[in-house]
Specification:
The chain is of the alpha+beta class and 274 residues long. It has nine helices and eight strands. A hairpin with an 8-residue loop joins strand 1 and strand 2.
Length: 274
């Protein structure tokens, strides 16, 4: 019984993170109490159907875009959804929406709990607004191929790379808490986990990011305990292999060697869902 309750709590925490990134409560509709939606890349259609099994609604491909959307508006389903995430949302925009929905449903709104890396919330936020990338800072001279094929070839021929994880939000206070120290092994507080960067492009946004091997592997350990449920999990699984191969200097490997072949296979796999 305790295990089932913990599993439900973890799933609800993850869902709250997904909603804070990709979800929306709309209260402007005159014909219903409110409407709720989550929009994701079409590659994560399976993830949306998994959410639908728990909270109801319908999933449809968005016309003219590579996105799928889950929608629900029935009072029963909205009440069940609110019961799951009430008090777990940390995004100021989403909590403002949730307060109005609670008022219309006659449900007491619960103030958000403080962030903890023991929660699955960050896993959900990563699934919605996170990215895992390998930047090729230097590579051997190759044809400047466009598109996906060019990215694969540049990674195969990379001489200098930078692996990073980012979670992006419009407002700094909606990700600042991710800098909370993380040490899942001992529970002891350490230096802030990650840093915040401001990007002026696209009207400005903030990113929480990590780049060091220690932090990357710590995040992977967190995800093992609080699983990602989107295709982004594919790259997270490849991170330990990246460090194993890169430490052997594959850019110096002999042509046709086992190390070069493994690195080329890794590069192909890295872009599997691109």
């Amino acid at each position: 019984m305790q295990d089932k309750l913990l599993q439900d709590l973890k799933w609800n925490q993850w869902l709250a993170g997904v909603i804070d990134g990709d979800g929306c409560f709309s209260t402007a509709n005159r014909h219903s109490v409110a409407q709720f939606s989550i929009t994701m890349n079409y590659l994560d259609e399976r993830c949306l159907y998994g959410i639908k099994q728990k909270i109801g609604g319908s999933v449809k491909l968005q016309s003219g875009s590579a996105a799928v959307r889950l929608r629900l508006s029935s009072k029963v389903h909205l009440s069940q959804l609110v019961a799951r995430v009430n008090g777990l949302s940390l995004n100021s925009i989403r909590t403002d929406q949730l307060k109005i929905v609670c008022q219309r449903l006659g449900i007491n709104y619960c103030n958000s709990t403080s962030f903890s890396w023991q929660s699955s919330y960050a896993s959900g936020l990563f699934d919605s607004d996170g990215t895992v990338t390998i930047s090729v800072k230097k590579h051997r001279s190759i044809d400047n191929l466009p598109g996906l094929e060019g990215k694969i070839q540049r990674l195969k021929n990379a001489c200098e790379t930078q692996l990073s994880i980012k979670i992006t939000q419009k407002f700094k206070h909606n990700i600042q808490f991710l800098c909370t120290p993380l040490d899942l092994d001992t529970g002891k507080l350490k230096i802030p986990f990650g840093a915040i960067h401001f990007d002026k492009s696209q009207n400005g946004y903030y990113s929480w990011y990590i780049t060091s091997r220690q932090d990357m592997l710590a995040f992977c350990n967190y995800i093992r305990q609080n699983p990602s449920r989107t295709v982004k999990m594919h790259r997270l699984r490849l991170i330990p292999l990246y460090y194993e191969l890169w430490s052997q200097k594959p850019h110096l490997a002999a042509v046709g060697s086992a190390l070069q072949k493994r690195w080329f296979d890794f590069a192909e796999s890295w872009f599997k869902y691109s």
